[in-house]
From TrEMBL:
Residues 6-402 form the FAD dependent oxidoreductase domain. It comes from Bradyrhizobium zhanjiangense. This is FAD-binding oxidoreductase. InterPro entries: FAD-dep_OxRdtase, FAD/NAD-bd_sf. Keywords: Oxidoreductase. It comes from the Bacteria.
Amino acid sequence: MATGRHVAIIGAGAVGVISAIEALREGHRVTLIDPGEPGGEQAASYGNAGWLSSHSVIPPAEPGVWKKVPGYLIDPLGPLAIRWSYLPKALPWLIKYLLSGWTEARVEKTAFALRDLLKDAPLLHKKLAEEAGVPELIERNGVMHVFPSRGNFDNDLGWRLRKKVGVEWLELNADEMRQREPDLHPRYTFGVVVEEAGRCRNPGAYVAALAQHALASGAKHVRAKATGLKLSGNTLVAVVTETGEIPCDAAVVAAGARSKQLTASVGDPLPLETERGYHVMIENPETGPRSSMMASDAKMVVNWTGKGLRAAGTVEIAGLEAAPNWKRAEILRNHLFSMFPKLPKDIPASRIKTWFGHRPSMPDGRPCIGYARASRDIVYAFGHGHVGLVGSARTGRLVAQLLSGKQPEIPLAPFAPDRFL
């Protein structure tokens, strides 16, 4: 395939804008297609927890998770909730989700694949941030996981598999944790620090800066909603938008949770679903963690951002159109106050911000990265689920390699879009 093609990238989130930067580096002309502002509140990238967790290699579904499904249906405020009204539509995806984690061997396969995708991600992001003129937004200073007991850690399949794929960590007893995190609730008695990981201090601002870097490097931004892809035989002709067609030689589908319609337009009905996520953020909270951390009991990441202390997590299966359940954000807030008892209980409501968005998720926890079946002019790069921000740096490099017909830097068979077709 010739270089210097006109590439239309659908989606200006983290994956899309980094794909644009890397495609420009390969000598292609780039048009970003997105109706919204890169890094704006409408984007999943904006509400990300901010973790650059290169060890996030465990998919959401693990062996035995099927036993918890009744609880997911009964409890609308649990760590994973499924709305009854959406169940019939979500059922095919949920079945694939459960089967993907049915055995430890299947989970292990995903862990090895994700390790390839995420390894060295904090370093890759640091280089991108420096290029974009915002080096202060990426920090490579490790993250902490905290547990009520050592047993909670020892009995976790995820940590056994992380060790197997080469992740290393530092273990902390209660005293060592308290020295590092004096304001953390004393119910947490064991912790691990993954020193290779990092964090983003403001995901929205980071994506916006990357987009500006792409534009300054020659990319164009068309504010339009893409609705389909137009082929002539097996050759891509144009991206179809609500305001007209955009002629191009190649296209990248990086539209997150809204990629499903686009792939279906060229004969790839992929099982993409939205894992709706929430965050709560306290501006000027006065106390909190010294490092970024995840609480095993709350299933929640706590991270300092440039705008305040952010707590993010939980999953809600309810589709793209249903209204938010803001009680889920209240649960995150309550967990945050429980983790850090010294947080003032009378913080004004004006300083507590909430957000809701859509994680694009494939059933097996692995994104789709590869060519469309109908044409090698079309590259898919979506479905990252819980690893969208951290996985975006290498995904952008892989997209550029596919666009140029080069050998991808990691094996892409585990991410092949046709694995569900």
